[in-house]
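I hope you will forgive my troubling you with a question about protein structure. The matter concerns a single protein, recorded as an amino acid sequence and a row of backbone structure tokens. Please examine both parts with care and let me know of anything in them that strikes you as inconsistent. Here, with my thanks, is the record as I have it:
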Amino acid sequence: MPIKEEDIKRILSGLAKYEGVESVVLADDTGFPLSSTISPKKAETISALVTSLIGKVKSILEELELSSLKVLVMRTADREILVTPQEGANLVVVRKLTK
């Protein structure tokens, strides 16, 4: 049974309430944003870039003969991007790091 759109929005809104979370994007595995807490244009860009990045990371893992990707974490001096790829969808959470 597919998840209803209102349930997806409720889940994304719930994630956005966690401390430091600035944006949440759910994208399909082709890079199309399904739902987000940010502007459609920004969600579209993030979805496409993250989907491309996931493909590259999976290729690296295969080349190194490592197990499948579960979570991809990218960290800057003040932000953290968490990407959780699943079958058919990718969840992206951007959060501000606390000191």
User: Anything to note?
Assistant: Helices lie at 5-16, 40-63.
